[in-house]
Design a protein that fits this description.
heterodimer; A: 425 residues; alpha/beta; Urease, subunit C, domain 1; TIM Barrel; 2 domains; eight-stranded parallel beta sheet; six-stranded mixed beta sheet; 30% helix; 23% strand; B: 326 residues; Rossmann fold; four-stranded parallel beta sheet
Chain lengths: 425, 326
């Protein structure tokens, strides 16, 4: 299959490329930019006039809900929702049911990935067995089965000795640890940021220190063990400065943030809006600004959807009884463009945080339009916009906190391995 | 802000009573005025008015309570409504039925009002968003969030003794962090225009950024009580001693217990209030609880009048609609 994407504005932060060029694809690979290869005859021409051609986006955290939660969503539904926002690579945390701590689960995920045939799916292996924070999981066996890194998901590792050993062992296996910093005892069953809103609504609060204390413990252990660590879903401004200090000190640490924390704050919870029940919680405007600044300064390298599709019942209860998480995968790109339009982030920076930078964290050869790369491509119409309408979401999870928002940008085509997996028209 | 949109109908009348936050001063005052009219009903030989005759009220208690449930029940009976008591913590939900299913089942029985007590903050609000449009919801306490009828009976008691709110200094003492009563009192006092609301407690029992609600925080009891017109004590749950919030009942009483000596710091005509049940010797000394400054038992009888007022108002009735009252 030979495809040419013509007349588009190619934007690839990895290659510092921003200009009008044609792009040629042969058998799932990008073979050339600008110059038509000798003897190239296209089977398919895509006209990208007045559109932007991006590398397929890389989402560092999305839950596809299989195995275990197929009543919430499936690979089929969520990979299509991802494609509709230009996403072609997805990293999945290990908190499936059963947990990704045996190769059988990894095999099943690979099977589902092949069946869906819409995106590259990179599972993270459990750091501890059952994510219980007690015994090490068979990290190397899981790596050989195809896991790209290790993580304890959102589950705590209360025992610091276990955490140290887990870091050491992961380091020995050459694995990056994807670490969500939250101190279990300081969280103390909290459901929202501890601040004026938790006080007014009488909801148990999660103090800033639940994150910063856990982060500081982990950073010291990274220093000791030298494990490569990626810190997931920072939510406070203070965490950004702690990561920055670690990076300046030369620690092998990177970080990401969920798109929700770049747009929303505790104020959006308003009347117990359970779609704003998130983990980590929405914090305040100062934190939101600090996270944005973290991206602009390069401290936070990636923005992820932290997609958590839920069935309607999961959100239909008094706030603290609802399940945390938002369905965000198909608005990741429009929400980033919204920040660009509001001049909070530059376009190149925004695209880098969705393509080359998360690809670098995962250590995969994705997120670029360079010749020789896999033809994972997103074609974007920057001039159109869309209203977020719950009913028309592609995701099986309708739990979006962005209901009614007018968001810029419309993906017109998404290519995965040289196949058109999404076509708006 | 919480409440306003959902609590009022399109004409600005009270439809649900979920929180004292965000309601206007005139609305809070009219609750007190209505309660004043109903207060006399309990003192008569025939303690009934036919205002809610033919209406069915369901007391939905997802959390055990005796006094609140009883006063709601009495209030409903004095308004001639039929009342259904459901102790749900031990029935439907433990069988796995969801809250929404329970509500819709009760709706199908043609109830007109739900009086709700629930352990989760925001539960009454959630229920109000779920019920059919003809049903009113009254919050009888949701988690740490609100207990608006308790707050209004406290306001009623204050007004009976102090006539006006304008120049009052009020101190709320105890476990503010876990208290729905305190939150509702703070909003009501602020709307009714008191001079100053103080909260007195150790830092462990004070929620973060509580100053945003318009209160002054004191950790020292003597300092906080200095010159106040009203002292509102809160019940201290025994389970607070189990965690790391407080060392012991003994130490709590030494530092924050209301004794007659401490009360001397307040104005000479101070009134002492408590939502009950009282822990004698933990948050309050017996001689103060039973003393001449205490209005604790009056609060209980005022509770019935205030709950009658709120029930009638959310059903679109006022005392004037009842021939026997006017």
């Amino acid at each position: 299959m030979r495809i040419v994407i013509e007349n588009g504005r190619l934007l690839d932060p990895a290659k510092k490329l921003d200009g009008k060029q044609d792009l040629y694809i042969v058998d799932g690979k990008i073979v050339s930019l600008k110059m038509k290869p000798d003897g190239f005859e296209s089977d398919l021409q895509i006209d990208a006039k007045d559109k932007v051609v991006l590398p397929g986006l890389v989402d560092l955290c999305a839950r596809l809900r299989e195995p275990g939660y197929a009543h919430k969503a499936t690979f089929q539904s969520e990979c299509y929702a991802a494609n509709s926002s230009g996403i072609t690579s997805i990293c999945c945390p290990p908190d499936t049911k059963p947990v990704i701590d045996t190769t059988a689960v990894v095999d099943l995920i690979h099977q589902r990935t092949r069946d869906a045939n819409r995106a590259n799916v990179y599972p993270l292996a459990a750091l501890t067995l059952g994510l219980k924070g007690e015994h090490l999981a068979e990290m190397d066996t899981l790596r050989r089965a195809g896991c790209i890194g290790v993580s304890n998901g959102l589950a705590p590792i209360e025992n610091t000795e276990v955490l140290r050993r887990a870091f050491e062992y992961a380091h020995s296996c050459g694995l990056t640890v994807y670490f969500f910093a939250e101190d279990y005892s300081l969280k103390n069953n909290g459901v929202v940021h501890e601040g004026p809103v938790s006080t007014r609504l009488g909801l148990p609060g999660i103090p800033e220190t639940a994150e910063t204390v856990a982060l500081s413990r982990a950073l010291l252990l990274v220093e000791q063990t030298q494990v490569k660590a990626h810190f997931c879903r920072l939510s406070t401004a203070r965490s950004v400065s702690m990561i920055a200090a670690g990076q300046e000190q030369g620690l092998p640490v990177t970080a990401d943030v969920s798109i929700c924390n770049l747009h929303l704050t505790e104020m959006d919870i308003a009347d117990y809006n359970s779609d704003c029940h998130l983990q980590p919680p929405l914090r305040n405007e100062r934190d939101r600004k600090g996270l944005i600044e973290g991206i602009n300064k390069g401290v936070i390298a990636a923005v992820c959807s932290d997609h958590q599709p839920h069935d309607a019942d999961a959100k239909a209860a008094p706030f603290s009884q609802t399940e945390a998480g938002a369905s965000t995968i198909e608005h990741l790109l429009p929400l980033m463009l919204h920040l660009v339009n509001r001049k909070e982030i530059k376009l190149e920076q925004a695209i880098a945080a969705l393509t080359s930078q998360p690809a670098n964290i995962l250590g995969i050869n994705k997120g670029t339009l360079a010749a020789g790369s896999d033809a994972d491509i997103c074609i974007l119409d920057l001039d159109s916009s869309n209203n977020v309408d719950q009913a028309s979401l592609h995701s099986a999870g309708k739990n979006t906190p962005f209901k009614g928002w007018e968001l810029p940008g419309q993906v017109t085509h998404t290519l995965y391995n040289g196949n058109v997996v999404f076509n708006k028209n | 802000m919480t409440g306003n949109k959902i609590q009022l109908d399109t004409n600005g009348n009270l439809k649900h009573f979920l929180t004292t936050e965000g309601l206007s001063q005139s609305l809070l005052r009219s609750i007190l005025d209505h309660a004043e009219s109903f207060a006399s009903v309990g003192e008569r030989a025939v303690k009934k008015v036919p205002l809610l005759r033919g209406k069915t009220i369901a007391n939905l208690f997802f959390e055990p309570s005796t006094r609140t449930r009883t006063t709601f029940e009495l209030a409903a009976k004095r308004l001639s409504a039929d009342i259904l008591n459901l102790n749900i913590s031990t029935s439907a939900t433990s069988k796995g039925e969801t809250l929404s299913d329970t509500l819709h089942t009760l709706e199908a029985m043609h109830c007109d009002m739900f009086v709700v007590r629930h352990a989760n903050s925001g539960a009454a609000h959630y229920i109000a968003t779920q019920v059919a449009p003809h049903i009113s919801v009254i919050n009888a306490g949701d988690g740490r969030h609100a207990h608006p009828t308790q707050a209004m009976l406290d306001m009623f008691t204050i007004r009976r003794h102090k006539k006006t709110f304008e120049n009052l200094r009020v101190a709320i003492v105890g476990d503010i962090l876990h208290s729905r009563v305190a939150r509702s009192e703070i909003h009501a006092l602020s709307t009714l225009g008191v001079l100053e609301t103080r909260i007195i407690a150790p830092q462990t029992l004070i929620p973060k950024d509580v100053e945003n609600l318009g209160v002054q925080v004191f950790h020292d009891m003597d300092e906080g009580l200095n010159g106040v017109d009203v002292v509102m004590m809160l019940r201290l749950q025994k389970e607070r001693m189990r965690g790391a919030l407080l060392p012991s009942e003994y130490e709590y009483f030494q530092r924050y217990g209301l004794t007659s000596k401490r009360l001397e710091k307040a104005k000479s005509d101070v009134i002492v209030m408590h939502p009950g049940p009282i822990n004698r010797g933990v948050e309050i000394a017996s001689d103060v609880a039973d003393g001449e400054r205490s209005v604790i038992l009056q609060q209980v009888s005022h509770g019935i009048a205030v709950r009658m007022a709120v029930m009638a108002m959310t059903m679109g009735r006022s005392p004037e609609d009842s021939g026997t009252l006017a």
